[in-house]
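User:
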Amino acid sequence: MNITRILFLLITCQYYFLAAVQTLEIPKHMKSAAKKLTNICMKDTRATEDLFHGTKETGKLPDDNRLKCFLHCVLDKVGLIDNDNIIHLDNLFEVLPPEFLPIVEQLHTTCGTQSGVDGCETAYLTTECYIKTNPMILEMLFVSLSD
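Assistant: Predicted structure:
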């Protein structure tokens, strides 16, 4: 696993699970790695920041194909979705501190892979499940857009 992928996994998971561990502070260099990945996936999918603006207020992800493919891109780049569009959240067990493992296990057990018609929809439906399981995830999903 390359360093950028590990850094992004750690950043993402630390933000995802902030609700459980309130004292986490994310270093700037880790936020920078997440921002780079966000920029790559936004460019690849033609997603724009406008897609994300209303998300925190509504508590829901917009039903937009660019957003769906953005989520797939991120999951793909960090190795959490395979070529058969199965999400492997359990891959995070290798890189996360032990205090995060129960939360990852809960998301993994509760959501598994929410299959859609393609990889983009699968990433979207699964992310929606994560948000329903732990609403704090919604606030943390697009953190790299705000800095």
